[in-house]
Design brief:
The protein contains 13 helices and 16 strands. The chain is an alpha/beta fold.
Length: 456
């Protein structure tokens, strides 16, 4: 009987300690959200970044100015250290000419709203248009049906997907690989329907890649509304001709930088938990949601913890990566330096899905234990709208860290409006909601606190 009494007392004591720790966690997370919603800098920093330094594509003057600005902002916060990491990045220039015109007898003249895809060569073409939705259609048409023509890839995003990133993944291949697959059969240029669920007049750019086996041909995106118009008119007149011209070009690689700031760990001096976003943004917009929001949320997450006097066990970093959009050089360079400096990254979080209302975190792991480990924080974070904790992608910039065993998490905001703006001139600061942005920063800070507290 005595033994059972002792066991009961020990179990009660352990439960009491567990309950006490849970209450402590809950109270601190409440303070994190209070801090974010009453004393945040992320909105004002993002406003300056977007309105004063809007075109930040890697290699550009804007990208260099963005590095300087964010470095100074972080230095002002007086974290334990703030520094730059050199990285050589590609330098593609859109140019000043981008024309796509339909001017043919029997058809009302029309200029289609277009923009060059990132990495495209410039050039001119005046040819008949052939419309396809799947690559298999190219193979069936062959050289006889494609040579000398402009190929129009018209596959839309699938609206039945509730998670819009699934819809994006279902059609972005035609943007990336379409030009070379068309050039294989002698196409002189390609047009692609913008990868967006919204029908409007904003063309969406994005990276494309050439296969060295085939000629490089101009590749342009047209707005969704013009893509719909073109499809309808091609059905009426299969001999429709389009004249297009662009002057995009690629210049030699340029020196740029990742921007890194750090809170020093009190126990694990060589172990790191990082959060980050990418500082580069396409040159046709302001890069507010993609990915200025992710950058300022990551910076603000550290600022929140610092303002609350939190002393981390592990080193905590915010990393603003350069060149996610058209090369991933910043993420690769960061991982290379981490390996060379023998820095062990135990957790990495990426915010690159927009600054909308927080929903949770994806866990990039095949290990059920990793998924359950993160999902157990749901009860503490659910009061703040964070309920989605499941297997999924962590993020492009942190993915090179996976080879060192880093567990990668992807911050999940609501995705329904993201692809309305993604890679378009409409991705501007006025589309940012201050409260949603701050809630995202607090969500990341809360996750960092829990990971730091409970990671060995």
């Amino acid at each position: 009987m005595r033994i059972f009494q002792i066991l009961f007392i020990l179990m009660s004591f352990a439960f009491s300690n567990l309950q006490s720790q849970t209450n402590q966690d809950s109270l601190f997370i409440r303070r994190i959200f209070d801090q974010a919603l009453t004393d945040s800098r992320c909105y004002e920093v993002l406003e300056h970044l977007c309105t004063k330094i809007p075109a930040r594509l890697s290699g550009s003057v804007g990208a260099a100015k963005a590095v300087d600005y964010m470095f100074q902002v972080l230095k002002e916060e007086k974290f334990d250290s703030t520094f730059l990491q050199e990285v050589m990045v590609p330098h593609w220039v859109r140019g000043s000419i981008c024309k796509v015109n339909v001017n043919q007898k029997g058809v009302e003249p029309k200029s289609l709203v277009a923009c060059a895809l990132g990495g495209s060569v410039g050039g001119k073409a005046n040819a008949n248009v052939v419309e396809v939705q799947q690559f298999e259609e190219l193979d069936k048409l062959g050289e006889a049906g494609i040579k000398g023509k402009i190929v129009f890839f018209s596959r839309p995003m699938e609206p039945r997907h509730i998670h819009t990133f699934e819809a994006y993944g279902g059609c972005v291949d035609q943007r990336w690989a379409g030009p070379s697959k068309a050039a294989k059969y002698g196409a002189v240029a390609t047009l692609v329907r913008s990868v967006s669920l919204r029908e409007d007049s904003y063309p969406h750019t994005g990276a494309m890649g050439y296969d060295s086996l085939y000629p490089k041909i101009p590749a342009l995106a047209i707005s969704t509304s013009d893509a719909t118009w073109l499809s309808k008119n091609l059905k009426r007149n299969p001999q429709l001709r389009v004249a297009l011209e662009s002057d995009s070009r690629t210049l030699p690689d340029t020196l740029s930088h990742n921007v890194v700031t750090q809170m020093r760990g009190s126990i694990s001096t060589k172990e790191f938990i990082i959060t980050g976003g990418h500082l580069d943004a396409w040159d046709n917009g302001q890069g507010a949601h993609d990915d200025g929001a992710g950058c300022v949320q990551s910076m603000e997450a550290l600022r929140i913890l610092s303002k609350l006097g939190y002393i981390p066990k592990h080193n905590i970093r915010a990393v603003l990566f350069m060149n996610e959009e058209n090369g991933l050089r910043g993420g690769k360079r960061y991982a290379e330096l981490a390996d060379s400096l023998k820095e062990k990254h135990i957790i990495a979080i990426e915010s690159d899905r927009g600054g909308f209302s927080p929903r949770g975190f994806y866990i990039d792991s095949d290990e059920p234990s990793n998924i359950s480990r993160i999902a157990k924080y749901r009860s503490l974070l659910e009061p703040y709208g964070l309920h989605d904790f499941k297997k999924g992608g962590g993020g492009s910039d942190i993915s090179p860290l996976k080879k060192q065993g880093t567990l990668c998490l992807g911050f999940i905001p609501d995705s329904q409006r993201y692809f309305d703006l993604h890679h378009a001139a409409s991705d501007t600061f006025d589309k940012i909601n201050k409260r949603e942005l701050e809630l995202g920063a607090a969500s990341i800070a809360a996750m960092i606190y829990l990971l730091d507290t409970y990671s060995e």
